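Duplicate of #3305? Posting structure anyway:
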């Protein structure tokens, strides 16, 4: 559309002459909806005006790729008498994109800097555009959109024949179906992908990346799956604990001297202190180690509690305060939308009272604005009610975002939703009723939690009683000697717990028979003759 290769080379030479680090700035824009070449050119001129660039010294290219028309704008960093403006460039580019979407009637795309964009537009006096973009702002910072990969990573992957958007959807689907990092790694391997620790371990310890077998970088695990770094470190620790090999003690052969209780079988051995030294065979050491390990396993079963049980009860004050803090932003948004609708309604009523405003069409236009504000208010009510349910644990997923385009066909569904959740809407609209509703919700949550703990204890009570009986028998087995009837009886009772290869009784070898010959026959005793 404008510019050429020689103009780009000339811009690089001027940058070197002026001692600049960069010579060109590349800005690419790919609209989701169709734009003509004229509209793309006008948007490029808007970018030039925003960053104080000379439109006569730009290179602008429009081309199609994969059925999508998009533009590439290259601006020289040296603008003959000044350097190209670069302050808050990303936020300003997002602002231009939102304004262009509003101007062309396209669907607004939520960005990470919508709050800053609204503030800038309000300072410029563009309140109507600011109000439309303000509806995109999420209530919490966690709901802000976040890119899964950078533009540079996407271009590198495209040059190597990788489709990053498709791979991102695949990785998200694999993570949603996995129950941990181990299964997730196995699922990645099935699609010729692998996850490993990143190369920048000094600056970002613990960060992991996902790449294909050719070494093409797909992106960071936390960016692709939207998992927080703290949670990911916990998953790594759990995986390491699960995969760590269990070290078994190596026992030396022979018999080992141990300090034990007084041997009851040796009646003649002196024991003035009540304790003696005796030797323990290797088989007996193995048996005792096995018994101690089984006791530990059964103790875990005996002391196990319900997943939701805690030594400390739920703190009502802490929970209610946390809920109110999270809901405060949603309440402000609801009040703001109600005020807008109330203002639009008053203006329509004022216009309706004047006959010349009715004849000139002002009343009709004010009514359209009022109906539009009413639909926006209904959607905001739906949004804050879903947020209330999500924050208090009655909804699994976050609230659905506000819609930028509403039609009269959406009104019945919104009204049915508000009618179904009338109590929640009333609570969000009135602080006094919200406090009552939150207290009732906390009471119901505590009762439901106690009921789940009671059911869990009832289901696991027989298992705990069985574990207690087995622990008593195992401890009694530790106190007996292997060559006693009591020991053999306890081993027989605990056959289902004790491994047979360790507690198998030794095979009795037959004693060799002695042949009594005539020479070996003892002489019979005879009394002496008198």
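Output from current build:
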């Amino acid at each position: 559309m404008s510019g050429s290769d020689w103009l780009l080379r000339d811009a690089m030479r001027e940058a070197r002459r002026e001692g600049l680090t960069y010579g060109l700035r590349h800005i690419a824009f790919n609209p989701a909806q169709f734009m003509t070449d004229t509209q793309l050119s006008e948007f490029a001129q808007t970018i030039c005006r925003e960053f104080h660039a000379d439109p006569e010294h730009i290179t602008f290219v429009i081309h199609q790729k994969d059925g999508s028309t998009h533009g590439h704008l290259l601006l020289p960093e040296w603008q003959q008498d000044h350097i190209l403006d670069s302050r808050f460039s990303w936020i300003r580019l997002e602002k231009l994109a939102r304004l262009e979407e509003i101007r062309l009637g396209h669907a607004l795309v939520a960005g990470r800097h919508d709050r800053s964009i609204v503030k800038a537009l309000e300072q410029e006096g563009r309140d109507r555009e600011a109000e439309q973009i303000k509806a995109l702002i999420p209530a919490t910072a966690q709901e802000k959109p976040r890119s899964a990969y950078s533009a540079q990573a996407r271009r590198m992957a495209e040059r190597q024949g990788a489709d990053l958007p498709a791979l991102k959807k695949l990785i998200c689907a694999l993570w949603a179906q996995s129950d941990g990092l181990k299964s997730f790694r196995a699922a990645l391997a099935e699609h010729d992908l692998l996850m490993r620790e990143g190369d920048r371990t000094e600056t970002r310890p613990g960060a992991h990346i996902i790449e294909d077998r050719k070494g093409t970088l797909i992106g960071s695990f936390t960016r692709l799956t939207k998992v927080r770094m703290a949670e990911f470190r916990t998953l790594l620790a759990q995986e390491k604990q699960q995969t760590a090999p269990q070290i078994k003690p190596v026992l030396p052969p022979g018999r080992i001297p141990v300090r034990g209780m007084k041997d009851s079988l040796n009646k003649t051995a002196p024991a003035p202190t009540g304790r003696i030294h005796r030797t323990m065979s290797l088989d007996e050491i193995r048996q005792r180690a096995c018994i101690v390990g089984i006791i530990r396993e059964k103790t875990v079963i005996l002391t196990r509690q319900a997943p939701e049980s805690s030594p400390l009860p739920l703190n009502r004050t802490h929970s209610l305060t946390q809920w109110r803090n999270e809901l405060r932003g949603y309440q402000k948004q609801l009040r703001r939308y109600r005020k807008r609708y109330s203002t639009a309604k008053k203006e329509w009523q004022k216009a309706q009272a004047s006959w010349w405003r009715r004849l000139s069409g002002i009343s009709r236009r004010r009514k359209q604005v009022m109906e539009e504000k009413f639909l926006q208010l209904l959607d905001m009510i739906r949004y804050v009610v879903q947020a209330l349910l999500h924050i208090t644990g009655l909804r699994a997923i976050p609230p659905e975002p506000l819609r930028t385009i509403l039609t009269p066909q959406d009104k019945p569904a919104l009204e049915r939703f508000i009618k179904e959740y009338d109590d929640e809407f009333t609570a969000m609209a009135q602080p006094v009723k919200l406090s009552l509703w939150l207290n009732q919700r906390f009471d119901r949550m505590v009762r439901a939690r106690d009921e789940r703990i009671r059911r869990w204890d009832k289901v696991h009570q027989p298992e705990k009683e069985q574990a207690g009986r087995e622990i008593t028998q195992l401890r009694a087995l530790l106190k007996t000697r292997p060559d006693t009837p009591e020991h053999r009886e306890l081993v027989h009772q605990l056959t289902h717990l004790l491994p047979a290869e360790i507690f198998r009784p030794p095979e009795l070898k037959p004693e060799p028979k002695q042949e009594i010959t005539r020479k070996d026959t003892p002489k019979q005793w005879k009394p002496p003759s008198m």
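Confirmed duplicate; merging threads. Residues 151-242 form one domain. Confidence is low (pLDDT under 50) at residues 251-256, 259-274, 516-521.
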